[in-house]
Amino acid sequence: MPGNIKGLAVAIVVLALAVTGIFAWRSMPDVPFTAGPSGSGPQNGGAPDAAEAREDPEKLRLAAREAGANELGLVPILIYHYIGEKEGRWTRTPENFRRDLQELYDRGYVLVPLNDYLDGDMDVPAGESPAIITFDDSTAGHFRLLEKDGETVVDPDCAVGILRDFGEKHPGFGHTATFFVNAYPFGQPQYWQKKLQLLNEWGFEIGNHTYSHQNLQGLPPEQVAKEIVRLQEHVQQAVPGYKPRAFAIVQDGLPEPYETAFSGESGGIKYKHDGVLMWAWSAARSPYHKEYDPGRIQRIQVFQDQGRSSLVNWLERISAQRYVSDGNRETIAIPDGWQEVLKEKHGKKLVVYKPNEPMRTPGREKQATTARGVHVTFSYASSRDRWNKILELTENARLNTVQLDVKDESGRIGYLSEVKMAKEIGAGRDMMPIRDMLAELRDREIYSVARVVIFRDPFLAQKKPQYMVRDKNGNPLAGGVWVDPYNKEVWDYNVELAREAYELGFDEVQFDYIRFPEGIAAHTAIYGAKDDRHRVDVIAGFLRYAREKLGWNRVLSATVFGFTGYAADDLGIGQRPERMAPFVDYISPMVYPSHYSRGNYGFANPNAHPYGVVDGSLKDFRELVASTGCRIRPWLQSFTMGPPAYGRKEIRAQIEATEDNGIDTWLLWNPGVYYKIDNIIT
Questions:
Q1: What is the SS3 assignment for 543?
Q2: Does 292 share its domain with 423?
Q3: Fewer CB within 10 Å of terminal CB in the chain, N or C?
């Protein structure tokens, strides 16, 4: 919640306690407090008994629902390397670091110790979320001491100074962080012992990052143990008896065997870690999640990613699935639908409640991450017999997903839409009993994706000529099939269609043709609502706007040209995957081998090398979007366009290339909706 609201809430609570003296209530953050008719106490007319409230299942559920609790949600563990004067890939300025803390505070996060996370015992107020800050490499900007007026003081622009100052000014937020150190940390060798002592005294944690910042990959186990033990002994020179409980891998250098990162011995001295932290890129699992792995804890690097804070990108991305506390350390509170990912042994009382609004659930996420299916046009699906063939295909080819046109390249909609613009121009067609079809897919546990074509919309351009893109002479560009990507009303029309698709029951919406028209004439074309933004900013801006309107509680994806992963620019159409990725859950590159040019990925005829082209393209896309957390779900070619003809061999090669890249989700495209089971099934 915003800082001013936090302050107001604290003031109200303090005033209530002073007036009524109900100090028993203060120790019970899980019990909702609302003024009764007299304005003097809890709803039941007096301070409830603490033990009774903590045992009453209904009160526990009510408290969890009021807090919006989800203690199986994601935890952001942030990583910084340098705090310095110039922002860069590895450096955060003091001012931006302060902004990061403010961002966390405003969004209802509090800082918790990494060791509490490892123990599964985080103390977080009801309705708020834990965040963990880590620093690798113990560089000078992390902790600097200055001589001032004969005294040694903390530099207010180093990380320790900023954290302590912010924590003091924002009560309840905390200032804790974990510093993964190497030999003689933080520069200023005359102070290294004093600095470690002060960190320990002030409630910070010290982690092991090897003595000499050593990449452990390929090292013999005895050398790995020596690096870790030597750093542990070094820390104990300053803080006797202190044993770092966490270890941070250096440069993704994984030791072999991996267990040596956890425990070992060198020179008769033993070490044992409770957690091993990886480099990036993901928020971390809750310690109560069955897939929580203390040996591979994920982190998020904070930096300016394509001009936008990676912290903001990630906090937005996890907003609908973040860890939210019920304020009761004796319970694990989760919304209904999350039980399947709770680990068996957790030592807490489980509280499951019905959320006020539908939430993203692990089951739905698993469907999305393993979606394998085909594209279907609404014309094809309008026939019951043909629709039955699609249902049979999904069963017999072991598919689990159907992507169905909502608004296609013609600008028409396959059902009678209730969206205002669609009704006004008559875009809807009564071709599909859409609700019945989606219910049928749900009953069969088939994941449904709504395809909404955005800026190629000849029907809207015809009915609303003011939106049409025209060439420099004022004539309809390309026959009048494009509408203005700058136009806010065009944006709103498509966002409302997406909203309607979710309300109808689609599991996901995928935007297609999110681009400017191609070709030389398009560069000099007339766009009625044009402003000074670059094409890339316009396309990314549309996706950002759509996400803000639709929220993160729904799965949203976007289709892009496969060649945008290979190209150095936007191809003149405004598509740059790394700029689009922060606002969608999945980016779907059309990695059709027939669409690549001679020489791409080293092939004279890329179309004849489906495995190599798809493999190379997916590697390019993964590198481009890795820092954003966006997943990749490629469109694969299930049609023939030039030699060779595409059959089982070529289609299976693309599927295998996708899976060999660790991607379990893909979609097949055939414009005629012609798919053969034998070409798909293993």
A1: helix
A2: no
A3: C
Tell me how far apart the alpha carbons of residues 375 and 668 are, in angstroms, rounded to a whole number.
6
Mean per-residue pLDDT for 25-45? 31
Looking up residue 634, the CATH number of its domain turns out to be: 3.20.20.80
Closest among 335, 394, 336 to 367, alpha carbons compared = 394
The secondary structure element, H or E, covering residue 449 is: strand 447-453
Query: For residue 463, which amino acid is it?
Result: K
Q: Which two tokens stand for residue 19?
A: 């007036």
Q: Is the pTM of this model over 0.85?
A: yes
CB atoms within 10 A of CB 152: 11
Helix H or strand E encompassing 666: strand 666-669
Structure tokens at 193: 């012992």
Q: Which residue has the tokens 């990036």?
A: 280
616 token code pair: 């190379």
User: What is the per-residue pLDDT for 358?
Assistant: 83
* Type of residue found at 392: E
In this structure, which amino acid lies at residue 381? A
Domain count of the chain? Answer: 3
CB-side neighbour CA atoms (13 Å) of 551: 11
Pair 635, 580 in one domain? yes
pLDDT at 17 over 80: no
In a domain, 346, yes or no: no
Give pLDDT tens digits for 125-163: 999 999 999 999 999 999 999 998 889 999 999 999 999
Strand partners, 559: 588
Distance in angstroms (rounded) separating the CA atoms of residues 493 and 298? 39
Q: Are 381 and 390 in contact (CB under 8 A)?
A: yes
Distance CA 199, CA 201 (A): 5
Structure tokens at 223: 């050398």
The rounded distance, in Å, linking the Cα atoms of 591 and 611 is: 11
Length of the chain: 682
Question: Which residue, chain included where needed, has tokens 């008994």?
Answer: 49
Least reliable range by pLDDT among 44-48, 425-429, 534-538, 622-626: 44-48
Sign of CA dihedral 285, 286, 287, 291: negative
7 and 90, same domain (yes or no) = no
pLDDT higher than 70, residue 349:
yes
Q: What is the mean pLDDT of residues 250-269?
A: 94
- Report the amino acid identity of residue 585: D
